[in-house]
Amino acid sequence: MKMNINTINNEFKKNEIDKIVKFNEPLMNHTSLKIGGPADIFCSPNNLEELIKIISISQKFNIPFWVIGNGTNLLVLDKGARGIVIKLGKGFKKVKFINKTVQVGAGVNLLYLSNMALNRGLSGLEFACNIPGTLGGAIVNNAGFNGNCIADIVESVTFLNKEKKIEKLHLSDLNFKYRGCDLKHKSTIILEVTLLLKEGDKEKIESVIKKYTKIRKSKQPVDKLSAGSIFKNPTGYYAGELIEKVGAKGLSQGKAMVSNKHANFIINREGAKARDVLCLIKEIEKRVKENFGIELEREIEILGEP
């Protein structure tokens, strides 16, 4: 894909959104793995109007775009991402409580949201207390922990479709499944989510949060740079156990290593390259396939040029 950066930049200026645009922005600054090359164009729209202008420009010049949240389940490849990378800004981080219902912008951090619910004595978001992603990403991936998931509390999702029209779908129309829903891999951008929580005892909610935090710290490498779980759990199995059984726990490539704490995590030991992580992913897939006949499905998203 070839782009005339000056022409594109002039288009951003003409639309008065050049202040929210960066060129050759290092995406390692926007992922939890701290790995990856630059985005050709990086945009942080603060409201719907700015977002629509960005999408219009991408369509006018036939430039692909990608939306990222906190980059917590994302591997950006070493050459970076071609086209436009969008990260929703402050206008998409609003939270409004109406009794037990809460309207939440797609850019809101789950940790922050979980604490807000706790402070109001509302239950349902305890599982999200240690998930470092944003709500938009949690919806498309049906994020969960310890048997609970975001689908349990969703009432409706509002999103921008590929025609730049706003649509709203209720829970029954989203078809949530394990680590996904119907909005995944579609040309939609989640704008807002309505969640339905329950009244609860603040002390009990806090107790559950502490329990979940303790579980995570004991089982996952939360003090290391990672992208969370690399693979989905195959039906009837745990991916981490399969990886451990094929001897890949502790396996390393360059500065990337399969965690000794949880084999379904790959950690960056300061300075890993995306190619190192990819090498480990492919080796794990090969070993599990050869030993168990199981094809692991990746949970991590991969963005960019090899």
Give a description of the structure.
The chain is of the alpha+beta class. The protein folds into three domains: 5-90, Uridine Diphospho-n-acetylenolpyruvylglucosamine Reductase, domain 2; 93-217, Uridine Diphospho-n-acetylenolpyruvylglucosamine Reductase, domain 3 (2-Layer Sandwich), CATH 3.30.465; 221-303, Alpha-Beta Complex (Uridine Diphospho-n-acetylenolpyruvylglucosamine Reductase, domain 1). It is built from eight helices and 19 strands. It has helices at 5-14, 48-60, 110-119, 135-140, 171-174, 202-219, 239-245, 274-292, and strands at residues 21-26, 38-43, 65-68, 74-76, 81-87, 95-98, 101-105, 122-123, 144-145, 148-149, 154-160, 166-170, 189-196, 198-199, 225-226, 252-253, 256-258, 266-268, 301-303. The strands form six sheets. The chain has a five-stranded antiparallel β-sheet. Strands 1-2-5-3 form a four-stranded mixed β-sheet, covered by helices on one side. A hairpin with a 5-residue loop joins β11 and β12. It is globular and about 55 Å long. The two termini are 15 Å apart. The model has no long low-confidence stretch (mean pLDDT 96).
Q: Which helices and strands, and how do they pair?
A:
Layout: H1 5-14, E1 21-26, E2 38-43, H2 48-60, E3 65-68, E4 74-76, E5 81-87, E6 95-98, E7 101-105, H3 110-119, E8 122-123, H4 135-140, E9 144-145, E10 148-149, E11 154-160, E12 166-170, H5 171-174, E13 189-196, E14 198-199, H6 202-219, E15 225-226, H7 239-245, E16 252-253, E17 256-258, E18 266-268, H8 274-292, E19 301-303
Parallel strand pairs: 2-5, 3-5, 4-19
Antiparallel strand pairs: 1-2, 6-7, 7-13, 8-14, 9-10, 11-12, 11-13, 15-18, 16-17, 17-18
